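Convert to structure. Protein one:
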Amino acid sequence: MQYQELIVYILNKFNKIKKMKAIYNNMRFIIKNDFPEIGAYLYVFEKGKCIADYLQDDSLSCKEVALEEYGVPMDIWQESEDD
């Protein structure tokens, strides 16, 4: 792989925003990864409305906030294509 192709490949990897979701205690939780220098967002929904959001360094930190604040188990998170 050429140097320029490698740079394009790496930039494309960073531009892919991955999402994770969990449903727990009648609430929906979504994690959206942003660029690495920004971090990841945890959104908390109740009855279809966003009631809280958190900016963390990474998705693991978002999961930890969800666990500590709302009791969301670490093992119920799923990768998601949609919101």
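Protein two, convert as well:
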Amino acid sequence: MDDQGETAPTTHRLAPSLIPMDRAGPQFGQALTAQILLDEGMKVQGCSASAALLFGRDRGTMQGAEFREFFPPEEWNRMQRQWPGPAGEPAIHQWRGTAWGSGRKSFLAELTLYALVTGETLVQIGGVEVDHEHHRLAHLEKLATLGQTVAGVAHEVNNPLTTVIAHAQLALENPQRPDVRPRLETILREARRMAKILRGLLTFAREKPREHVRVVIPEIIEATLALRAHEHRLTNIRVIRELSDDLPPVAGDPDQLQQVLLNLFMNAEQAMLEAHGNGRLIIRAYVEPTTSGVRLEIEDNGPGIPPEVQDRIFEPFFTTKGPGKGTGLGLAIVRSIVQSHGGSIELRGQPDQGAVFVITLPPHAGLQGAAETVMPSTDEGLPQILIVDDEPELAAVLSEALQKEGYRVDMASSGPQALEAIARKSYRAIISDYKMPGMNGRMLHGVVSGRQPQLARRILFTTGDSSEEVLQFIEECGNLLLLKPFPLEELSEALRSLLARS
């Protein structure tokens, strides 16, 4: 290893098992290890079946392929800078980075490149961590980031919660005082603020399958900044937004893109605080003229990244932080996520002048706006509703609100009680909590589906749990879902929509 941690090429006598294919016979193609033989122009002369499988091809289509086709452009350029190719004498070079497998899915791999005296190169691929393992590592990195974020979010919630408690106590001391109404308005405002903070945290925390939907980048930026707002105030980090008004939507996974931004924001914060004790974070977003996509820049005024390690910062397990301060996975996963969205990320900036990470993302294929939901009219009458929730206070206040709108409401505190009520009376709709002891919402839905299929379609589920289990169930059954906490107007709109179902 040299001073910068690079693996220096060293002379090594090749073992007989590594003799190239044309001199080792058919055993090369049947080798269990992933091996590729390259000619002087870095084209594939031959490969083992396991190597072809790794890259999602058969051995025939591998033949003659450019080796560079198997790597993201920036990874190939980094490999070329670290290892210029065979020099006519035997040598070994170790390289670790991201490659492209079947369907352009990225994976982390360790390459051992054997430069042969013939000018050819034998490549052995080991240490492979393919997509599902990479996803696991990404989630672990996400959990580490989440742990650092929770303390700040808890503070953000505790402040308005203290305000709510104090106003409620003062209002109860003398409910006839004229200032009770403004106190209640403050309670409502602060409670909604807490709901927004917690919903953002739960959205980031949940693990779910990756999906690409229509994403508005400024919304992701603001949601991510909200998670860091307390830390920014506490550490005197000034955030400057330079966001274009005409940004197109992109196709992406909102949670993954938020993970990218959160990682870059936190890296910038740490660098600036260590250098100055405060900082300036600039976030720019504008239309990328060459692709009509989005160009996103995250700039800090920290110490920057030394030139000698700039080529390595996206390598898995490489970190510029001190012992115990970084896993070395963050930026590798950031780049992998960006690449999986068809985009690119690069580092710019000079030492002592801060760092600038530049991300480009392609536009959404269909630039149409999201479909507008039209709420149906309920002029024909307000029917009988059943509320099912094991929290009696919540059930009571929802019942009161719906009765004021003219609905007739019954309450049940459990799934079995709900089934008894359904057997006695006809209901047009059910509002049911998902997580209840004993019979949960999924079980209740299953029983009602067997007895009254039409009523089962008109169950509105409520929950504070946005886990994959819940979301998957909702997707399968097609019912409506309200995430707690929710304002009463959302409940009313959802109920009107539900009652419009035939």
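The two ends are 71 Å apart (CA to CA). Confidence is low (pLDDT under 50) at residues 1-32, 323-328, 367-381.
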